[in-house]
Amino acid sequence: MSILLKKVVNFVEAHEVGTFSEDIFIGQRPSKPIDCITFYDTPGRAPRKDQTADRTFQVITRNKSYPLGIGKAGEVQKVLKELYQFWLGDTWVIKLEAQNEPGHIGRDENGNHLFSANYNIWIKE
Description:
Layout: H1 3-14, E1 24-26, E2 36-42, E3 52-63, H2 66-80, E4 82-88, E5 91-98, E6 103-107, E7 113-124
Parallel strand pairs: 1-2
Antiparallel strand pairs: 2-3, 3-7, 4-5, 5-7, 6-7
């Protein structure tokens, strides 16, 4: 599990969007609960030549209901959409921003709706 991603999840959890290990997960979406949010590290951008890192992550929301699922993805988006210069635990964040609005990406093997949004986080290491 990515330490940085766990800090992001803690931040989202503090905004009462969900609870880690109950309905928010990192790196692997469990079969239950159906209605959940999973955070994934993504490849990111080219390495910088200074003391910063430009990382990316994806958030996949799963829900039985289309309206409730897009609503939950929107709650995450509201928390992470655009933030500048703040501490995320012991990590200094220069910028955290959404790369896109949440969107429906289809259904899982059981017919549940999946929604995706991608984020960029630029930090000082």
